[in-house]
Design goal:
single chain, alpha+beta
């Protein structure tokens, strides 16, 4: 079944309309509203079917591109307008990506060419530097994958053999109008075998019954000309999150908590607005019983500043009176009436913060983030305990680092293959298969946990004595560069030699063995020659 290239702007704009109560409308809410025994049959959850996830769908979250666009539209609104969503996104990026991952090339076999590591490391560094990867593109890829549920990263050939990274929007990855002509082009250009039926749903080209076996990606550029492009799988990396591998497209991190974020934002907004009004009132003047109704009522109406019309939800409007409470406002109460403080009264307003804290805990559980890391209020939690190695937050972030490291490495290997085909590694005289067998690329993410320097030093000392840890690794664990520290250590030892075991043995022999003065002089001479 062929689809068409569509614009999701109108759909998302209409879907995100607010109700008269300020709530965001989700047309799928009826699927989860089971109010009674008959909910399953009248608007409630439905039994699963084999068709729900046959073609890369992820029902009930999505089974069309329009539903995918709806989930992304909600996430975009949250990130752009709600501070909690923006804060969570930046917090995760700071702990997961930090200042950037370190990629190091190392040999896998002993008989490899001596300059292979240098040439490969040079390519990796140039590829990352030319694409502004460290602390820039890497964080954008992470943020996009969280917000949209996926990050689309393509590799394009350049004149200097260093591939260029290009990011695409999720709406650009879409099913083609007609797959017949496109398959003919792909078969000729990339020599992809079409002996088995393939599927183009969601723009992800895969085998028809193996949606996890991706062949390529169909990208459109918009406009009236219908411009499009096709990227084979070895020139494209899809950072797809929150879905199983058989689902073709990812889902935003905020899909499961967007209602909680909106509710917390509304509670925060209403609480602050009420507090502003309460703070503007200096005191309330309740009139004595002898004050006439007309006199007190006139004082009350004098404070009215105007009226305005608001929709009533039925196509009409109704008029309401508005009042402006400037700082130091005095409020009058007509005779016969009694003042009662509202929910925002001084003795009640603190209880309104409790639901907000509860909602923040619900939001934080989505990413194993404690509530006080979102609210920046450490009064009700131990912030330092969050960053120890055993905490759920650190374990979750380390797992995230492994997830992104695997895909970053896949992107680098794909770029290296493109460079190899362009002649970048011709000087090595190796085939691509031989080159892959001889080297490996190691990815070191930044540390998430805060560590005790004394405990690290004690552990390293024991492992060095037992021969289970090298000096180079110990230096790297301490956060220093082994290439800089090892030459310095060697120079210091030459300048200030320390007594070794042999020198100590010679000294002990001179002191303990009963020999002639000539023998002791000989020991002393040997010691001075070996250790001047």
């Amino acid at each position: 079944m062929n689809s068409f290239v569509f614009s999701t702007h109108d759909f998302v704009e209409k879907s995100l309309l607010e109700s008269q109560w300020g709530d965001m409308i989700d047309p799928r809410e009826q699927m989860f509203d089971v109010s009674d025994f008959y909910g399953t049959y009248y608007g409630g959850p439905t039994p699963s079917r084999i068709e729900d996830r046959m073609e890369g769908d992820y029902y009930p979250i999505y089974h069309t591109e329009q539903e995918l666009a709806f989930t992304r539209g909600i996430a975009h609104s949250l990130v752009e307008f709600e501070s909690r969503a923006t804060g969570v996104l930046e917090l995760l990026g700071n702990y997961i990506i930090g200042t950037g991952f370190k990629f190091t090339v190392q040999l896998e076999v002993e008989d490899a060419p001596s300059d292979l590591v240098w040439i490969t490391q040079k390519f990796v560094d140039e590829f990352l530097d030319q694409n502004d990867f460290h602390n820039d593109l890497d964080k954008e890829i992470h943020a996009r994958s969280r917000e949209d549920g996926e990050s689309l990263v393509a590799l394009e050939q350049s004149d200097d053999c260093i591939p260029t990274i290009r990011l695409f929007e999720p709406d650009q990855l879409t099913q083609p109008r007609s797959s017949v002509s496109l398959e003919k082009y792909v078969r000729q250009e990339y020599e992809i075998d079409f002996s088995r039926p393939t599927s183009w749903k969601y723009g992800v080209h895969s085998l028809e019954c193996r949606t996890d076996k991706v062949l390529g990606y169909h990208i459109v550029y918009g406009g009236t000309k219908g411009e499009w492009d096709y990227f084979p799988a070895d020139r494209f990396e899809l950072f797809k999150r929150n879905v199983p591998r058989n689902a073709k497209r990812g889902v935003s991190d905020f899909h499961w908590v967007y209602s909680e974020i909106l509710n917390e934002a509304k509670l925060r907004r209403n609480t602050l607005t009420g507090a502003q009004v309460q703070a503007a009132i200096a005191y309330i003047r309740q009139h004595a019983p002898g004050t006439t109704q007309a006199k007190a009522g006139g004082m009350v109406t004098d404070s009215q500043t105007g009226t305005r019309q608001i929709p009533n939800g039925y196509g009409g409007t109704r008029q309401i009176s508005t009042k402006r409470h400037a700082p130091g406002t005095v409020v009058d109460i007509p005779a016969g009436m009694e003042y009662h403080p509202g929910p925002m009264g001084a003795e009640r307003n603190s209880s309104l913060l409790l639901p907000g804290e509860y909602i923040l805990r619900c939001i934080g559980s989505r990413w194993q983030v404690p509530e006080y890391m979102i609210s920046n209020d450490a009064s009700n939690g131990n912030y330092a305990s969050t960053l120890v190695a055993e905490s759920p937050f650190v374990k979750a972030r380390e797992a995230d680092q492994e997830w992104y490291a695997k895909r970053f490495l896949s992107l680098i290997w794909k770029a290296m293959k493109m460079a190899f085909q362009s002649g970048y590694f011709d000087s090595t005289g190796l085939s691509w298969e031989a080159l892959m067998e001889m080297i490996d690329i190691k990815c070191d993410p930044p540390e998430v946990a805060s560590r005790d320097p004394l405990a690290i030093a004690q552990r390293q000392s024991i492992e060095l004595q037992n021969g289970t840890l090298s000096k180079e690794t110990a230096i790297a664990e301490s956060g220093r560069d082994p290439d800089e520290e090892l030459p310095k250590i060697k120079a210091e030892k030459l300048a200030n030699p320390q007594p070794s075991a042999l020198q100590g043995a010679l000294q002990g022999a001179m002191e303990s063995v009963e020999t002639s003065a000539e023998a002791k002089e000989l020991f002393r001479h040997i010691s001075e020659v070996v250790y001047p």
